Amino acid sequence: MRARTAPAGWYDGQVAIVTGGGSGIGAALVRSLRTAGATVVVADLEPGADGVKLDVTDAAAVQELVDDVVREHGRLDLLFNNAGISLIGETQDLSLAQWNQIIDVNIRGVVHGVAAAYPVMLRQGGGHLVNTASMGGLMAAGLLTSYVMTKHAVVGLSLALRSEAAAHGVGVTAICPAAVETPILDKGEFGRVRGRDYFLKGQGIRRPLDPDVLAARTLAAVAAGEALVVEPVQSRVAWRLQRIAPGFTQRASVKFVAKQRQLAARRS
Ligand SMILES: NC(=O)c1ccc[n+]([C@@H]2O[C@H](COP(=O)([O-])OP(=O)(O)OC[C@H]3O[C@@H](n4cnc5c(N)ncnc54)[C@H](O)[C@@H]3O)[C@@H](O)[C@H]2O)c1
């Protein structure tokens, strides 16, 4: 059963860090958490007025931020490892530097957060790690290969750690949305494939998810201790289909890539 709202008062007085909190999904999580009564530290490469500057690829900086928050507030209840980037295009056009960059931000960034915050939560005997993965962490389609790889890693880390952390009162949730209306939809294009075409037209989605709706649903899921947040409903249907008939979804992915190439060719 998917929870729609967090119980009243659940987030009151909780201390949270949101990486990538300066934009998009992260900014929506910050708004929702603050409305629910949490104290939130916004951490981002581009933090805006009320945030701290943080590069999640810098392990020492992530550790320092967690230490600072624990020193100042006495605890850390929630870490949202949300900062991420995308790269979209033909894999042969991807440079090694780009592969390394997406691994550094999307995988190592999450590892740095877990390495710094999980021991704190174990000592406290409670806390929750919330990792932003993607539908690309549950299903695989080409032209987004490096991103899909990183998000599968985030889902794997989250589900495995969840089973280990449960006995210590620490929760782990991975967020796996399809397209969400944020600037990332128009970033990371290194060839002719366009992010919006890929995430919307290509998948038959007419309108991306509203980040505030996703954030509210995420806070409800975290409070309920859910493992995965898969939104919207079409994504849950597609994911179920993949588990029932993986061969079918692989063949559909081949067609999907062909369609994307056609769309890209029409533009040139
Ligand atoms: N928007 C979508 O359709 C969608 C779907 C599924 C998953 N996601 C994931 O959601 C997360 C948030 O993305 P978004 O859609 O809000 O995009 P966004 O581009 O609006 O926000 C990403 C934020 O992360 C920050 N960031 C990037 N690299 C960083 C670094 N090294 N250190 C610290 N901060 C860094 C950026 O400055 C930005 O503020 C990402 O992990 C993304 O992969 C997005």
Describe this structure in words.
The protein is α/β, with parallel strands linked by helices and 268 residues long. It has one domain (15-267): Rossmann fold, CATH 3.40.50.720. The chain is built from eight helices and seven strands; from the N terminus they run E-H-E-E-H-E-H-E-H-E-H-H-E-H-H. The chain has a seven-stranded parallel sheet, sandwiched between helices. Helix 1 crosses helix 6 and helix 2 runs parallel beside helix 3 (96-124). The chain is globular and about 55 Å long. The mean pLDDT is 95. It binds nicotinamide-adenine-dinucleotide (NAD). Nicotinamide-adenine-dinucleotide binds at residues 19-20, 22-26, 44-46, 54-57, 82-86, 105, 109, 132, 134, 177, 179-180, 182-185, 187, 199.
Helices, by number, come to 8
CATH superfamily: NAD(P)-binding Rossmann-like Domain
Uncertain residue segments: none
Helix amount: 40-55%
The CATH architecture can be given as 3-Layer(aba) Sandwich
Q: What is the approximate shape?
A: globular
Compute the average pLDDT: 95
Count of folded domains: 1
Main sheet: strands, sense, barrel: 7 strands, parallel
How much is the radius of gyration in Å?
Answer: 18 Å
Strand order of the largest sheet: 3-2-1-4-5-6-7
Classification by helices and strands: alpha/beta
Strand content: 5-15%
Tell me the total number of β-strands: 7
Would you list the SSEs in sequence order as H and E?
Answer: EHEEHEHEHEHHEHH
CATH topology: Rossmann fold
Q: Which ligands are bound?
A: nicotinamide-adenine-dinucleotide
